[in-house]
């Protein structure tokens, strides 16, 4: 079993809801903004706590993409923890993230994850940005639109 598979398995075990029934797990599918004409698919698994302003733990995957004739950007895994603030279905969140790749778009493994969106009973849509916040190196970041289904 590869290192990435072991890390993903361990994180999934940690994210699996063990708390009250109001906590939820959500699966997300999205698309990252095109970098030099090449978009990427995004898959996520998130767990949110039960508070009115919940904590969110997210495991994500950003698919490989070609990059302007240079070496392709590798698949990237992300692990994030953020605090979500809600108001009448609308939400904004901010937190920290670790990414598996240090490349032209995500420079450094330490990142910040911000989001704004709307959540209904089981579905949500959000615009998210993953970036190092100009703390070191390049700072292009990944911006992606995410559709989630909560269980």
Q: Can you walk through the features of this model?
A:
- The protein has one domain: Beta Barrel (Porin), CATH 2.40.160.
- Mean pLDDT is 85; it is low at 17-21.
- It has an eight-stranded antiparallel β-barrel.
- The protein is built from one helix and ten strands, in the order αββββββββββ.
- The chain is mainly β and 151 residues long.
- The radius of gyration is 15 Å and the shape is globular.
- A hairpin with a 2-residue loop joins strand 4 and strand 5 (70-73).
Task: Please state the oligomeric state of the protein chains shown.
Answer: single chain
CATH topology name = Porin
Major β-sheet annotation: 8 strands, antiparallel, barrel
Percent range for β-strand residues = over 45%
Q: Measure the end-to-end span.
A: 29 Å
Average pLDDT figure: 85
General form: globular
